[in-house]
Write a structure and sequence with these properties.
Belongs to the isocitrate and isopropylmalate dehydrogenases family. About 40% of the residues lie in helices and about 20% in strands. It is an alpha/beta fold and about 375 residues long. Helix 7 runs parallel beside helix 8 and helix 10 crosses helix 11. The chain is globular, with a radius of gyration of 21 Å.
């Protein structure tokens, strides 16, 4: 039996509500497949923990997480705790300490009714954004000089190392090559005359190693336009930390909203655990009401299963999400339904059991 040890950080707001439904799905798979076992250890870190303890996680939190195969995160952020503290002292700290330098954000339309773009179908919006996740504009380098004075100067430095830039671009080329898809680089070389010119040069250099991959390059402003007007242009996209953060939220808007947006923070070498999360944030305005959409959290379970090498189960979860989206009244209010968060999870498990009965999954 393969046992996967998962650290749960439900976090803030609706995080605990949606993580509970993702765990429900994993436990259902465990019942259906006797060759797989999951263990869960919950860590109560987040903004409430910060208010009580003056820190977002235990002092030895990173050491505690090192032993796990994966981290399942719900959400980070809540009123009363400054965003830069909640982000930098938990989410970004984990990403950086565990060198999770690949961020995978699928922009995939699972049901035509969900896109605000008229006449666009599932086949028109189906691409993967590979975002550099460890440096760039989010390196945390900078300075505030003469704070509070008229002469105050604020410097925020983007850090682009050759190692960091090469490895994310090479990862993207590998993904495009093995999946026989095009690769698009998104940068801003005309204005950012050091960092993005360097990015473009590295993209071209590594491209010589992959003559089979057809490539495109767009400035980020043009790419934003094409995301909306012609999303079919994109198959695999690689971009920097900041641009990837912004563009994937735009991608989420094209495919049904943040309630369907998932993300994987990957350490490809598996020297450290990788982290999987819905990216909708903590949504404090609806926390505790039982109406949070858990589908993004469940989609991140699919990404986790893919990472574990359980691709059949990863595909099964994604297939059930597609089926679930056809049952409008079984969905949460943000998608036009009347179901609660828990009811969505329960119905999803029913669909997963039905799917397993028709496929060769049960042992």
């Amino acid at each position: 039996m393969k046992t996967f040890n998962i650290a749960l950080i439900p976090g803030d707001g609706i995080g605990p509500e949606v993580v509970a439904e993702g765990v429900k799905v994993l436990k259902a798979i465990e019942k259906l497949d006797s060759s797989i076992s999951f263990t869960f250890t919950m860590f109560p870190w987040g903004c409430e923990y910060y208010i009580d303890n003056g820190k977002m996680m235990d002092d030895d939190g990173i050491d505690k997480l090192k032993t796990f195969d994966a981290i399942y995160l719900g959400a980070v952020g809540y009123p009363g705790v400054p965003d830069h503290i909640s982000l930098w002292d938990l989410l970004l700290r984990i990403r950086k300490e565990f060198d999770q330098y690949v961020n995978l954000r699928p922009v995939t339309l699972l049901n035509q009714s969900l896109t605000p773009l008229k006449s666009k179908m599932e086949k028109d919006i189906d691409f993967l954004v590979i975002r550099e996740n460890s440096e760039g504009e989010y390196a945390g380098a900078g300075e505030r000089l003469f704070k509070g004075n008229q002469e105050e100067v604020v410097l925020q430095t983007g850090v682009f190392t050759r190692k960091g830039t090469e490895r994310i671009i090479r990862y993207a080329y590998e993904e495009a090559s093995k999946s026989n898809r095009t690769l698009t680089s998104i940068s801003k070389g005309n204005a950012l005359n050091y960092s993005m010119v360097f990015w473009d040069e590295v993209f071209d250099e590594i491209g010589k190693e992959y003559p089979d991959v057809k490539t495109y390059s767009y400035l980020v402003d043009a790419a934003s336009l094409y995301f909306v007007t012609d999303p079919k242009k994109f198959e695999v996209v690689v971009t920097s930390n900041l641009f990837g953060d912004i563009l994937t939220d735009l991608g989420a808007a094209l495919t049904g909203g943040l309630g369907l947006a998932t993300g994987a923070n990957i350490n490809p070498e598996k020297d450290f655990p990788s982290m999987f999360e819905p990216v909708h944030g903590s949504a404090p305005d609806i926390a505790g009401k039982g109406i949070a959409n858990p589908i993004a959290a469940i989609w991140s379970v699919s990404q986790m299963l893919d990472f574990f090498g359980e691709k059949e189960w990863g595909e099964a979860v994604l297939s059930c999400i597609k089926d679930m989206l056809k049952e409008t009244m079984q969905l949460t209010p943000d998608l036009g339904g009347s179901a609660s968060t828990g009811e969505v999870g329960d119905r999803f498990v029913e669909l997963l059991n039905e799917y397993a009965d028709t496929e060769i999954f049960t042992n």
